[in-house]
Write a structure and sequence with these properties.
With 702 residues, the protein is an alpha+beta fold. The protein is 47% helix and 15% strand. It contains 24 helices and 23 strands. The strands form 7 sheets. It has an 8-stranded mixed β-sheet with strand order 10-9-11-12-22-21-19-16, sandwiched between helices. The two termini are 28 Å apart.
């Protein structure tokens, strides 16, 4: 076997084939690596590998076409088959030689994440899972090519048939989606040959045992088929007169059934045993709040997927599989929208897209459109929306919590004082937390309704009337909760500020600037405050909070013994207040500017015996704009939602944050990117090609 391996490996590098194969793969990999990972700073090698798939399918037949067909054409296979070396060893030796040639460019590609790491953060687990998956895919392709090469002595025909088979396996996912509407059984059979979906799972950051077993099964089966062909050929050469059939159809069927059984058994295992989420942000993992909710289920919850199971979104199936593993009360069912066109109308009037979900428990249901499973951000470079995060767990857990609950917590948003407008993002977060938000004008109410779990006062710029302020204070003194966000304004708001002063909080005039350059972003008014440890801040302790144009808070001590005021966000000691922004001549600290460490976010609690008043107060409305929130990857919104859910904790709302796709982009200067790109794209492939031509030319002269 070793001798066959060495012979075949030398043959690749005594001709131009081996050099050309490696050079072409590295050339195209270098191009996409330069564009995606160096110039654009993307930290994911899977983008590059996905882009070279078609090139890989084209060059793989060049490597496999001669491995068996040339022996057959030159009649040298008869010498091999009559040699003391067993057919199995011949086969393995030839296959390992091709696998070695494949391993060379993959080994070079394995260095690319290390190159990227010198310019920033790289999710290594994702990167090497993608490379490993690509190598397994390549190994399966080589096994298929080896088998096809054993069928014919014409190398061109072997190459064309191999390419056709590999291309079919690559495009099959799309073909299945067409077949699935009316031919479910046919699509189930076709999915067996779907190479691309299994590769995609590994490239997406899921180390999936079912995919690994699948590719290894493909390798085993096609090596087995080739072995049977060799046995048949060897038998005809050495014993033509006997009619016993070595190429046993029955034996092949048994092997196929065993292989299928192994794959089916692995598929039946819980995803907790077969899948490891290696993504940097654990996109497909289930967090503890979801585990607690689902594992405690006592009622059956059915999740309908509006798609055929064979073509349903792989990411959706992965996350749903984890829910199903957590509890026997979770049932997943698929409803093809073409077969059941009116199914969704039983539960919602909204028009849902393919792969949308409907969560049902008894008579209560909640629909989740497929688009809601992903968070998008508008890219002004391409003028298109780009998916930036996966919210599958957040939306599904929210829907389960909703259908289980008898009633939703209610928040009243106070209006009538020129308050800021609530963004669509905040509205979506509140809806995901199953919080019913109702607007109210205090003028129309004698008091704040008793069903108010919380009130929301969002940056008023017109003062409250004395009656309105009293209604708010009375509500809070009765054990109510409030989220209050203020914003700097030149208008005087004595009645509104009187509500805060009742609870020991005074707003200082002016806007806070930061004197410590490490504690602001771009300019001194764009604060990156210190985040102090608290139940509200535990999830964002290692992240930045972004507070542009915030006001300082002065905390009054000893207002009441029952009252407690805890700082959540503070500036450094070098911060100062610009009291009169209209007359300020510089952003720098001037004489008369008050200096010190200032709270800009506080949590106020008051123990009333049987009840506890909670007030969460932040001092800038700008913290909730989409651009500001995106700058800190959603940490501002997460902090706010932590505060809201802490105030309605008696109904246990669950709000799982969106899991971001991207780690921060790497920064590579243009010269370095082009230099490295030139080496990887031009120098190395060209050197390989020239070496191959020289070796080929020298051997031709001999």
């Amino acid at each position: 076997m070793i001798a066959i391996w060495k012979k075949e490996l030398k043959s690749y590098f005594h001709s131009i084939i081996g050099y050309l194969y490696i050079g072409v793969i590295l050339f195209f990999t270098g191009i996409y690596f330069t564009i995606y990972n160096l110039i654009n700073g993307l930290p994911y090698i899977s983008y590059t590998l996905s882009s070279i798939l078609m090139t890989f399918l084209i060059v793989t037949p060049l490597l496999t076409m001669r491995i068996m067909s040339e022996e057959k054409k030159m009649k040298t296979d008869q010498l091999l088959f009559t040699s003391p070396v067993s057919p199995g060893k011949i086969l393995i030796g030839k296959y390992l030689s091709m696998l070695t040639v494949l391993a060379i460019p993959m080994g070079v590609i394995a260095l690319y994440p290390l190159i990227m790491a010198s310019f920033g953060e790289v999710p290594f687990a994702e990167a090497y899972t993608a490379i490993f998956g690509f190598f397994l895919f390549g190994a399966a392709c080589l096994a298929i090519g080896l088998f096809v090469s054993a069928l014919t002595e014409n190398q061109i025909i072997a190459a064309l048939i191999t390419f056709a088979i590999l291309l079919f396996g690559f495009l099959l996912a799309g073909i299945i989606s067409v077949l699935a509407a009316g031919n479910t059984w046919l699509s189930n059979i076709a999915s067996i040959f779907d190479l691309a979906t299994r590769l995609s799972t590994l490239m997406d950051g899921v180390l999936d045992l079912t995919c690994i077993i699948y590719f290894l099964t493909i390798v085993f089966l096609f090596l087995f088929f080739t072995y049977e062909l060799i046995q048949k050929r060897k038998y005809h050469v050495s014993a033509r007169g006997v009619k016993t059939r070595v190429f046993s159809i029955g034996f092949i069927i048994v092997v196929l059934l065993v292989s299928g059984g192994v794959n089916y058994f692995v598929l039946t295992l819980p995803t907790t045993m077969t899948q490891i989420d290696v993504t940097n942000t654990h996109l497909y993992s289930i967090t503890q709040p979801t585990k607690d909710l689902v594992s405690s289920l006592e009622e059956d919850v059915t999740i309908y997927v509006l798609e055929n199971e064979t073509v349903a979104d792989d990411i959706v199936q992965q996350i749903l599989g984890r829910y199903e593993d957590l509890s026997s009360h979770i049932k997943i069912e698929y409803r093809d929208m073409e077969t059941y066109p009116n199914f969704a109308a039983q539960y919602t009037l909204d028009t849902l897209s393919s792969n949308s979900l409907i969560v049902v428990c008894k008579e209560k249901s909640k629909a989740i459109d497929y688009s809601m499973l992903f968070e998008s951000q508008f890219d002004y470079g391409t003028y298109s929306s780009v998916a930036t995060g996966f919210d599958g767990e957040g939306q599904i857990t929210s829907a389960i919590s909703y259908v289980l609950s008898e009633e939703q917590p209610k928040m009243y948003a106070i209006q009538g004082h020129n308050e800021a407008e609530v963004s669509q993002r905040l509205s979506s977060r509140l809806a995901k937390a199953n919080i019913d938000v109702e607007t109210m004008q205090l003028l129309n109410y004698e008091k704040i309704p008793e069903d108010a779990q919380c009130i929301f006062i969002f940056a008023p710029t017109v003062d409250f009337s004395q009656e309105d302020a009293k209604k708010v204070v009375d509500y809070l003194k009765g054990g109510g909760h409030a989220l209050i966000i203020t914003s700097w304004t030149q208008e005087e708001l004595p009645n509104f500020e009187g509500v805060l002063e009742e609870y020991g909080v005074h707003l200082k005039k002016g806007i806070v600037a930061e004197g410590d350059s490490s504690a602001y972003y771009q300019n001194p008014f764009y604060l990156l405050p210190n985040v102090l440890a608290n139940e509200m801040t535990y999830s964002i302790m290692n992240r930045y909070i972004f507070m542009p144009y915030a006001q300082a808070i002065s905390i009054e001590e000893d207002v009441r013994s029952s009252l407690s005021i805890e700082s959540l966000l503070t500036t450094t000691e070098k911060a100062y207040i610009k009291e009169n922004m209209g007359k300020a001549e510089t952003y720098e600290k001037e004489e008369g500017d008050e200096e010190g460490s200032f709270p800009i976010g506080v949590l106020i609690t008051e123990d009333l015996g049987d009840k506890t008043t909670r007030i969460v107060h932040f001092t800038t409305e700008n913290m909730l704009t989409d651009h500001v929130d995106d700058t800190v990857s959603g940490a501002n919104m997460e902090l706010l939602m932590n505060g809201i859910t802490s105030m309605v904790d008696n109904t246990s709302p669950i709000s799982i944050p969106v899991k971001q796709y991207n780690v921060s982009q790497n920064i590579v200067n243009t010269f370095t990117a082009l230099t490295l790109g030139g080496i990887l794209t031009i120098f190395i492939p060209l050197a390989l090609l020239i070496t191959g031509i020289i070796v080929w030319a020298r051997r031709r002269k001999k």
